[in-house]
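Structure (tokenized):
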């Protein structure tokens, strides 16, 4: 694979196997407020040879009014509404359609369906999109997905949606919308290993997560100014700090090991409040600047709640980013990474402390290489080409090909139980 440099960043010139198509993606996240997620990474690559419209999350409804982030989430969404439809530097279009953040009743979903259809058809007219490939990654898009005329429909399941604590929408409604999309879809793509293995959908496909390997494997020349002042050893975390975080664990470890400093890089929820001199909240940083925070980190951590069903199904991309750096990683025992070499797991604060001590004093160059080798070939370029092949095969009527990712895999055109 050849690469060129644009503005200091590597840009692949790989052939992704899909050209001249139009793709509309109803994402589960907003383009503006997250580090790149799987749809972001893949679609910005496919946008090189195809017309892409990325639709920001319709949400699964408002969180409960009692949620400490209630007003924060509303404020952020209103700002996104003001942008409505924009072309971004990556060559694709991003849209935040205006909808009512309520999906609990048929009447309100009917109103949202028509609001969405009007806006989608207007955007499609402006962009010259007809008969697109539809990629849906959130259950609340089920109604509009059923009404749009599309070439094929991909449904990506990346989370245990009905276990999401961030929505006040009932689990029964979420399950109903989710099942409708599974019935409509030409393929159901699971981004989590546990989700895939528990599924009984015959037309399922394992779309393994990936990593921007070069971005994390190549060290920055120096640490970021707000990171370099943090004393070593540094426990680093990259990503959103919200209800998945195990705040009591962080507080206990910070108290017991005052010489260890936590460097938490990401947008912080009001649910995460820790007052300790060795816990440093640095706020969200541009994706391009993350290597400067990697440089200051001694051990990467994933202190996620162990009592949370939603978390247990997680396939956190950040773990692959940790592995790409080669540095030690101590994480909650996510099913997704149980068989990944070089990771240290914990279940209790004592085990966390022991794992970090082991990482600080007994990690080796061979361990570093083992971790990087585990993800070196699992890049977003590979995944984008995999999606290109999948879409091309479905359009041609050849069915679902076997994925290029690791186990589990589909057998023939569909996975067996």
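Design, position by position:
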């Amino acid at each position: 694979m050849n690469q060129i440099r644009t503005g200091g960043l590597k840009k692949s010139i790989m052939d992704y196997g899909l050209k001249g198509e139009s793709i509309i993606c109803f994402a589960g996240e907003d383009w503006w407020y997250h580090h790149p997620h799987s749809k972001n990474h893949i679609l910005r690559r496919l946008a090189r040879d195809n017309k892409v419209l990325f639709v920001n999350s319709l949400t699964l409804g408002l969180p409960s009014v009692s949620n400490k982030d209630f007003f924060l989430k509303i404020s952020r969404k209103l700002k996104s509404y003001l942008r409505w439809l924009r072309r971004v530097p990556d060559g694709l279009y991003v849209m935040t359609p205006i909808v009512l953040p309520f999906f609990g009743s048929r009447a309100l979903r009917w109103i949202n369906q028509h609001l969405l259809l009007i806006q989608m058809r207007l955007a499609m007219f402006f962009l010259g999109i007809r008969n697109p490939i539809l990629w849906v990654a959130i259950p609340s898009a089920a109604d509009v997905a059923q009404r749009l005329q599309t070439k094929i429909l991909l449904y990506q399941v990346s989370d245990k949606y009905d276990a999401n604590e961030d929505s006040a929408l009932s689990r029964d409604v979420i399950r109903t919308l989710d099942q409708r999309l599974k019935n409509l879809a030409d393929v159901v793509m699971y981004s989590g290993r546990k989700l895939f293995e528990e599924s009984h959908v015959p037309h399922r496909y394992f779309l393994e997560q990936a990593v921007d390997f070069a971005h994390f494997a190549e060290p920055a020349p120096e640490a970021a100014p707000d990171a370099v002042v943090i004393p070593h050893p540094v426990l680093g975390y990259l990503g959103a700090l919200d209800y998945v975080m195990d705040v009591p664990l962080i507080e206990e470890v910070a108290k017991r090991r005052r010489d260890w400093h936590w460097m938490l890089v990401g947008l912080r929820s009001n649910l995460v409040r820790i007052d300790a001199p060795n816990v440093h909240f640095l706020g969200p940083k541009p994706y391009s600047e993350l290597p400067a925070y990697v440089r200051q980190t001694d051990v990467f951590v994933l202190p996620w709640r162990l009592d949370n069903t939603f978390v247990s199904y997680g396939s956190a991309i950040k773990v692959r980013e940790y592995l790409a750096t080669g540095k030690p990683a101590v994480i909650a025992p996510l099913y997704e990474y149980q068989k990944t070499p070089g990771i240290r797991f914990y279940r209790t604060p004592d085990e966390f402390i022991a794992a970090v001590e082991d990482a600080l004093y007994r990690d080796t160059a061979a361990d570093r290489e083992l971790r990087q080798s585990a993800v070196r070939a699992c890049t977003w370029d590979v995944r984008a080409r995999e999606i290109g092949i999948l879409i091309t095969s479905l359009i041609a009527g050849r069915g679902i090909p076997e994925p290029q990712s690791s186990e589990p895999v589909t057998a023939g055109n569909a996975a067996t139980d």
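Reviewer-requested clarification: The longest strand covers residues 152-157. The longest helix spans residues 106-127.
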